Tagatose 1,6-diphosphate aldolase
Amino acid sequence: MKTISAAVAKHMANLSTTDGIISALAIDQRGSLKKMLAEAANKPADETTIVDFKKAVSSELTPYASSILTDPEYGLPATKVRDKNCGLLLSYEKTGYDTTEPGRMPDLIANQSGLRIKNEGGDAIKFLVYYDPDEGQEINDKKHAFVERVGAEAKANELPFFLEVLTYDANIADAKSEEFAKVKADKVLKTMKEFSKPEYDVTVLKVEIPFNIKFVEGFNGDNNVVHTQEEAKDLLKKQSEITDLPYIFLSAGVTSEEFIAEIKMAEEAGADFNGVLCGRATWKPAIKPFAAESETAGRKWLATHGKENIENLNEALKGAKSWRDKLEVAE
């Protein structure tokens, strides 16, 4: 069992429900969100609309979430209008990844640090790494060192370290393809095993569901079936058994209905997951009315449909377990 300080435990309590379940809202998208807002408005993206949208999501939805994840670049104004009982995670990485060299290398926000995240009122550092466990050792060793540095910085500032890992295959261009769906589970499980090692000082793993639901029997539509529902549940159970750390699910762009179906499968599988950090599945449809019509129209969608999405997700999280079962507080 991983041991954490009393200060880290206090921050973890701020980020979770009284039952120790993390029901967090993610609005740390930057480049992709700018693009979506611009497309909905049918005009070039600007620096104001993205800030205003994040503020709207924060003020309308944080009363129903245990915590919110945002970025220091556009999201700080949104942190000022969040619910007083809502904890705060701040991203440390730049949006996307370095495209000037192979390997989807991460990079940090230039004018950010663990200390600054703490001083901005952050309860945790969130860092995203793209990872292919089967890629070359030279590339992955750089990523291992990168995560080690962020973990050490979080520990020095007595903040929880939430590591988000998104898997890919260096030889498969389309992560939404059937080809990748066939290898995704292996990638996710190997990645979780790697970053559960103590040298990374991860407090909570933010991970993918170990399959693409659009290729699961009953949810596949016109796609071929890659996994039956029983096979999908078996993968969720294996995922649970591969780490002793608290772990939470990311929504990865699926719909709210699909994400809730995935969470229910995890419960049925007996998976020991500890909550969610859900983004687009909760608020993405608000983009169109917000950008194409008005802020009022966007807020109306968030206050009704967005609220319903979070409440439905919170209901589905009844099968989640407390992070306190996996973390020991040092005396």
